[in-house]
Target: Protein YjdM
Amino acid sequence: MSDLPACPQCQSTYTYEDGALLICPECGHEWSAAAAGAEGPVFKDANGNQLQDGDTVTVIKDLKVKGSSLVVKVGTKVKNIRLSEGDHDIDCKIDGIGPMQLKSEFVKKI
Model:
């Protein structure tokens, strides 16, 4: 089976490479192979909204801070988030607690 992506226009799986381009034989669409793999991960909040660096989110569940007795309460507003790949995909600084990492499934975009 081919590991090439499907055509972005007609979703045909019969794409082929021609040098640096990917070509769809069904609709004739051509696109660069570099652009096809450059999309990167998509981060979504608990409601399915796409998150971006610099967004403001609120916490939707009480979260215990590992290694301390602190708790991040429901409704805590977190400003200027940074997205990173990994298990905890949000790097942020929470007022009163400090820098920490959160999972995107426990926040919602404002």
The chain has one helix and eleven strands.
